Amino acid sequence: MGLYTASITLCVFYLIHSGFATDLLVDLPYGTIKGREAISPRNTTFRAFQSVPYAAAPVGPLRFQAPEPPTNWTGVKDATQDTYTCFSVKKDSDRENEDCLLINIFTPILDNASKDQLPVMLWIYGGAFRTGSALYENFGPEFLIEKGVVVVTLNYRLGPFGFLATEDGLISGNAGLKDQAQAIDWVHNHISLFGGNPKRVVLFGQSAGGASVGYQLLYKKNEGKIHGAILQSGSPLSSFSYMGDVSARAYAFDLASQIDGSVDFKNDTGSLIAFLQNNVTGRQIDKASTLTTVTSRPLPVIEQNVKNAFLYNGSYEYLQAGDFLKIPIMIGATSEEAIYGTSDMDAFKSSFEKYEKKHEKFVPTKGFHLKEGISNKLVGEEIYNLYFTNVSAEERLGYFVRWKSDNNYIKPMIKHADLSTKFTDVYFYIFSYDGIMGNWNITVPGAGLVGHGEDDRYIWKVKSSSFDNGDLSKFPEADRITHERIITLWTNFAKYLNPTPAASDLLQNISWPKVESGNFQYLDIDTDLVIRKDPKSPYYATWSRIYDQYNKRPFTIF
Ligand SMILES: *[C@@H]1O[C@H](CO)[C@@H](O)[C@H](O)[C@H]1NC(C)=O
Ligand SMILES: *[C@@H]1O[C@H](CO)[C@@H](O)[C@H](O)[C@H]1NC(C)=O
Ligand SMILES: *[C@@H]1O[C@H](CO)[C@@H](O)[C@H](O)[C@H]1NC(C)=O
Ligand SMILES: *[C@@H]1O[C@H](CO)[C@@H](O)[C@H](O)[C@H]1NC(C)=O
Ligand SMILES: *[C@@H]1O[C@H](CO)[C@@H](O)[C@H](O)[C@H]1NC(C)=O
Ligand SMILES: *[C@@H]1O[C@H](CO)[C@@H](O)[C@H](O)[C@H]1NC(C)=O
Ligand SMILES: *[C@@H]1O[C@H](CO)[C@@H](O)[C@H](O)[C@H]1NC(C)=O
Ligand SMILES: *[C@@H]1O[C@H](CO)[C@@H](O)[C@H](O)[C@H]1NC(C)=O
Ligand SMILES: *[C@@H]1O[C@H](CO)[C@@H](O)[C@H](O)[C@H]1NC(C)=O
């Protein structure tokens, strides 16, 4: 580019931007923040406010406890870049810090007196409740912003910081879910300052984030603050989102003894708390979380002996009873969630050999308590036959992947939809488009193709050492079309609480039907968009029968 052209470009840039003011300062009740201006790949200008505190740093007596409101600050807080992330189990970085109850706001509305009230999409990241963060490089909001929505991404506590519980009410548990609820409340109260509509907030999340979205629907205090929800590949019914029979109390004491094995707490919660809140650093707890022997995955629990619990009952009970926020939901999974497990093919094969020798291993290990007179052997045999009868030698490993996907990821999603549809609008999808943008490139005969998390790559602008979708032109046309469809369906849902409010060429004129009792239709998002019936048939129906026939009530998860 010659000097002449460059100066013209600068001049045009200046003219455009002098036409109106971009307000980079926003006054919150807690103090003023300063954001930055940015431009999306398709030239939508937006404002970014990053790492804004929505709660006080959960340290000292607040460690492991429900969050408190932010402390006020004086002067202008810099919100032009990411600061801290919450501590992750087994993933260390200099950014990890307990002062991590931070939220990011991205808005295409540039002045803070605008009357515009755009729909708000509030994202909860996944990572098994023990890793993850809302860093901009992982969840760049540009593609969504370009469709005229405000995007918010929240951070919440993970591992022991978010999910330690002592089962006696002193540390009641679910602090990480309470963080999310506090962030939802923050959005409700303050998003209009950013041009967002507090009456149109749609929660979305994937994996543990999808499960979190589902948990927030069970929490009465969110009533009126969220208006739609998207659950991608995670539900409170998913086994990976519930502590189950593992003793949370034993985990808490084990964690402390991994820091100092010489202390005898004599099973006294008071001494345990005094030690964990006053005598140790966050880094020590983080280190201990990698050494614990009871479990390495502290998770949401049913809270006992507490007044302001987040969760009083098993998720299944709430959903079955219609005891949840009755707002429209979009919910689904990728076509073969567990395919990533075969990236270590040798380990996967040797695991399969063990299952072939011992069919009891196919029985769910969490939330499944056999009725009197029923044996694991019987149930294991039924599940084995369900997946492997008449399956050829070449495809058996692929069917093992299917069992894993269904058992761990997909059956809870279908059940969540099935239970919810009696009470609210439910749109179900299976994401089966296999493109480079999705980034798992594994084929196993007999199994589907699209693994856990591939959907995220079509939604977010991601930049890592191994992946960058900032320049969409580098991807095949079919990937770009699928990307555009997903972005359109998701933002349509945020705007209209209906993913296909009108016929559109991009969406191949489909009208995505709601799930109805006795008529389970869903959208298959493949190279084409196709309406189908009964996802994962005949497997899902058989799973339902197996639970009803052999599992003791009340169910907690599915
Ligand atoms: C709006 O922006 C102006 C200019 O940046 C700033 O002075 C003012 O404090 C902001 N007001 C609010 C309510 O955020
Ligand atoms: C924080 O500032 C607000 C005013 O914006 C005030 O009402 C509140 O009392 C302050 N909180 C504390 C703890 O000082
Ligand atoms: C964005 O703006 C740049 C600079 O003005 C221009 O070169 C580019 O073509 C624009 N991109 C789109 C998608 O409009
Ligand atoms: C430890 O304390 C808990 C809660 O007070 C109690 O339920 C449990 O029985 C105690 N365990 C032992 C071994 O004393
Ligand atoms: C915790 O710290 C206090 C004060 O330094 C000390 O008296 C106490 O022994 C410590 N407790 C443990 C269990 O290390
Ligand atoms: C939850 O459990 C309580 C008792 O702890 C019970 O009274 C209530 O009916 C249950 N709610 C649901 C939705 O099952
Ligand atoms: C398995 O194959 C046999 C022989 O073709 C057939 O009779 C049977 O119905 C098949 N079973 C299932 C479950 O498909
Ligand atoms: C996917 O894997 C196949 C077989 O290993 C390889 O030939 C192909 O280039 C890979 N595709 C991408 C997009 O990485
Ligand atoms: C959608 O419907 C319109 C009007 O009937 C038609 O012109 C168009 O070709 C259709 N598009 C697709 C992709 O089917």
Automatic annotation (TrEMBL):
Pfam family, one: COesterase
Ranges for domain Carboxylesterase type B: 24-543
Glycoprotein keyword on record: yes
Enzyme Commission code: 3.1.1.-
Glycoprotein as UniProt keyword: yes
Single GO MF annotation: carboxylic ester hydrolase activity
PROSITE patterns for the chain: CARBOXYLESTERASE_B_1
Signal peptide positions on this chain: 1-21
EC class: hydrolase
Keywords: Disulfide bond, Glycoprotein, Hydrolase, Serine esterase, Signal
Protein family: Belongs to the type-B carboxylesterase/lipase family.
UniProt-recorded name of the protein: Carboxylic ester hydrolase
Organism of provenance: Ceutorhynchus assimilis (cabbage seed weevil)
